[in-house]
Design brief:
- The protein is built from 4 helices and 4 strands, in the order αβααββαβ.
- The chain is of the alpha/beta class.
- Helix 1 (13-27) runs parallel beside helix 3 and helix 3 (45-60) packs antiparallel against helix 4.
- The longest helix is centred in the last third of the chain and has 22 residues, at 92-113.
- The chain starts with 12 loop residues before the first helix and ends in a 5-residue tail after the last strand.
Length: 130
């Protein structure tokens, strides 16, 4: 009796890129997904940083909403970058202290290890309901 073997399905690098982007979309609220995807295509080194950032951020900001946003500079033609936004309700001092810990424990070194990318991390504040 011989076993029937399933043919191995080979994926293309673009299929892998789409799969990675779908994983990113499951972890972050992605504003302007098409524009974000274009930036990721141009700077694929960002994929691993974005995915790794999620777990690193969760260590310090376990319940905050996380967004991935494309930002532009109106003074610089065609300048676009990706920003991971940490939406928090923490007090300003506490939020910045945690962001400094993230910078010192991981982000600054990770950013240096992958220098050709336009990925940034910022804090944003959720509105307080009255």
């Amino acid at each position: 009796m011989t076993a029937i073997q399933e043919p191995t399905i080979k994926t293309t690098p673009f299929d892998d890129l789409i799969a990675d982007f779908n994983k990113i979309r499951s972890l972050y609220t992605v504003g302007e997904p098409l524009e974000a995807f274009k930036l990721i295509i141009d700077q694929q080194v960002m994929i691993s940083l974005i995915l790794e950032a999620h777990s690193k951020i969760r260590e310090l900001f376990p319940t905050e909403r996380l967004g991935l946003e494309v930002k532009t500079d109106p003074e610089i033609a065609n300048w676009r970058s990706l920003w991971i936004a940490i939406y928090t309700k923490l007090e300003v001092d506490e939020a910045f202290a945690k962001l400094n810990i993230l910078d010192d424990s991981w982000w600054l070194e990770a950013k240096i290890a992958a220098p050709k990318n336009d990925l940034h991390i910022s804090l944003e504040w959720e509105p307080n309901e009255i």
